[in-house]
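Appendix B. Chain record.
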Amino acid sequence: MTLLSSKRFVALNALLVCIMLLMIGRFAAVGWNRILMNTNSADGDQGAYLQLGLDVRERGMITDGKRNPLYPVLISIFAEREWQYFTWAKILNLGVGLMTILALYAVGYRLFDKVTAILAAFLLSINMEFILHSTFALAEALLVLWVLLAWYAMVRALQRPDQARYWIVGGGLAGLAYLTKGTGLLIAVCFVLTATLLYGPRVWRRPTFWSFVAGFVIIALPLWIYNWVVFGSPIYNSAIKNVMWMGTAEEKYIADPAELPTVWSYIQDHSLNETWNRLWHGLIDMRFFFAKLLWPTRSLAFDRFLLAGGLDVILALVAVTLVVSRRLLVPIIKKNREILLLTAVLFIVFYVLFGWYLAIAPFPIRFLLVLAPILMLLLSAGVVGLIRSAWASPKIPRLAKLAGSVIALLFA
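Structure tokens predicted for this chain:
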């Protein structure tokens, strides 16, 4: 490395450090303001999590059958019947949010490059949904962190199927995601499905596959034993057993638990046409919520734009861009097939599941938040890759490249 290139390398790293410090500082400042504004501990599920944290400390409980134990166990460290308990629970999540931004940069740098990593971390740091859920006493911030790290370990496991350490770590991190929230179980299922699609059923005969299973089981086993003893089923969760089979959210207020719907009662009470109509309308409406998930702000004007047909225009433009850029994208897709396949499986499973769940949870953003860092990273990688491919193409005039660089710099 020459002296000039060495100086440029140091200058670039210094610039990236400054950008990261600015992002983290801005996220912390906005997050602290949101902590101060979040004064109602009964807003959403915050009260239930705070109560469970107290139950962990005072009664030895670890779950109420609805909420998994990891976040309540963490906040039980400073659980008390005083107002500062609520404040510390929010501050804990703000710290987890900061760690997630740093983790996204590290994952992006290892999988792609520094520019992609910094862009993805920036998009996450300004995302209002992520900021809000990093300042609430909820499990979402912790779940996002575990899912991001598990996704990275799983990608590495798929890329290097003979290296057991990635499979073990992936299983353990998926287990931590499951201990945080019941949807963490989907992460493990999606990985198994992706590995099977990539390598066929023979992957089930590999020792590495069973090391993933072992990593997951070891972490999840305490919760399974507790559920078995208390609720009679290792994987008991009322959301899976009852809530997702309700027609409306109001059904959860039925006094007699024996009257709550199950999958069998739903099948008996609803026709195939009714079932399909519920799913179809949910799948159509989910487009709107994924657009809101990736948009950095909460804005009524943006909502009106999307609902007035703007969403369809955006999707059409994305489709046209993909078609026009297909020659540039093909080598990128081949190079990153494990990343894209795992993400596609996760996206489809979450999209369909919460499309169904939309009848009960009419604003499901927080359930989708686990996909936000992954989607932002891939979006950043796609944008950076297309810009680099366009810059390297001899068919694009030099003046157009210069203009594009100026626009990109001004945008940055």
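Further analysis of this model is presented in Appendix C.
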